[in-house]
Specification:
Order of helices and strands: HHHEHHEEHH
Shape: elongated
Strand content: 5-15%
Oligomer: single chain
CATH architecture of one domain: Orthogonal Bundle
Helix content: 55-70%
Amino acid sequence: MAPGNTAGRDHVDEMMEGWRAELPETATVQLEIIKRAGRLKALVEEVTQSVLGEYGMTYAEFDVLATLRRAGTPYRLKPSQLASRSSLTTGGTSNILQRLTTAKLVEREPDPADGRSSWVRLTPLGSRRAEELALATTEAHGNLLANVPDETARALADLLREVLLALGDRASVSRRG
């Protein structure tokens, strides 16, 4: 059994066993963290994509809708703010905004204070869709993690925050996004 493991073996334990036998200096706790984080990310992405596929949405489209929705009323941001608060590049955001505009989920509004700039705003349909998707993905994630005890989930969330902070991943000044 792997060091510190009392509940059973996972795929990473099997991989680590191979590294310990073949190249022990690579069988580090850091590798275990990276591999387990990657496995968790893959499982979450799988269920998320499944839900989004039912709605005919991509993750990037959902990310834009969700970012606008959690920005609060009036559910609008500048394109640069949208890119920085989501996991998208500015160029990628532009393409997605075109698709979401065609689907009547977002609209662009000129910025009266700056003629060179515009706002991106959720339409009422876009707001409803963002809420539906957020609730549906939340349910799917809850189902995925249903066998994880609440105390374990809370402890993991707190530990992951500590790791991310140690890596310099700090929140921006804004409290939303």
